[in-house]
Amino acid sequence: MAKPQIKIEPMQREHLDDIIRLEEQAYGPHHWSKESFFNEINNELARYYCAFDESGELAGYAGCWQILEEAHLTNIAVSPARRRNHIGEALLTAIIKSCINEMIKYITLEVRVSNMPAISLYEKYGFKSLGIRKGYYQDNNEDALIMWTENIFYDKFKIKYEQNLKNLNEKAGIIYKL
Question: Is 40 designated active site?
């Protein structure tokens, strides 16, 4: 069986209608607006990427803000029909690659305390929990786990990242157009 192909490329204005449809599927009525994404792709501090499947259909997206030596992962969303197919992991590796290219040392994020698949993925890539933001999510007042990487240029992080990337590429063919 051929491994699935995932193409990662920078988010563009022409992707926004598909992103909003995916955003609604992933987050329901409490989702970002088209204007928010438009503003993000025009924000010089932001890096947003789309993942496309073999047919060229949008399968997910992710973004971060890069400020000085830190990146803040703002969101990762994967189409519910494409979850558990390494799309989110491919997007996370694209964010990390972008941070490496931009000499960003640390990556942080918030994740719902109930989102165990996402927490497991972040831990796999070396993120550690460093606290809780009480009532962070407005839709249900759920707490957020605050997660950080150590310096991504340290050998400990790089070795883990490179091994995970190798394993990911054995499962799915990732084409990065960053």
Answer: no
